[in-house]
């Protein structure tokens, strides 16, 4: 049995490849990992949630919503990734001045799929928790009504709540917003 050697890439090599690529990849510890494509439901949920957050944040203008294609670098772990949703409060902190890499989200939302749900709940969440500005995490199922909400507490512990009923409101205190479960899933067919 032969094994293929793994080519180590520097972050600079990854960024050079990624900026020319037609599909997105994550990067960690010298390796690139292709990200799967998104379903119609996935996109509907991202657009619904991002739109609702944008409407609520508009009057304040101190926090901004970013969806899907903005790259996040987690400096303490070296992970480059693309969250489905991010809210950044205050000016975006750009990595090395690069206009396409931020480092300071307050809120992150991910839409779960069969291939990513364990990673999003586990290892990826561990990476995210190392970001000092990161305070709230939403994991949104796309095959049923279920939203998992994690909120950082003053002692750096995390409180978990799960929502499975339309009409329930999720308070996102770190960004001063509230999401109705029904608005997240509006028009989504299961």
Description:
With 190 residues, this protein is of the alpha+beta class. The chain has one domain (38-184): Alpha-Beta Complex (tt1808, chain A). Helices cover 23% and strands 30% of the residues. It has helices at residues 11-20, 40-57, 117-121, 123-129, 181-184; strands at residues 25-28, 31-34, 63-67, 71-74, 79-81, 85-89, 101-102, 107-111, 136-140, 147-152, 158-163, 169-172, 177-180. It has a 6-stranded mixed β-sheet. A 3-stranded mixed β-sheet has the order 5-4-7, with no helix packed on it. The longest helix has 18 residues, at 40-57. The termini are far apart. The mean pLDDT is 92.
Provide a concise account of the structure shown:
With 190 residues, the chain is α+β, with helices and mostly antiparallel strands. It has a single domain, classed as tt1808, chain A (Alpha-Beta Complex), CATH 3.90.1570.10. It has helices spanning 11-20, 40-57, 117-121, 123-129, 181-184, and strands at residues 25-28, 31-34, 63-67, 71-74, 79-81, 85-89, 101-102, 107-111, 136-140, 147-152, 158-163, 169-172, 177-180.
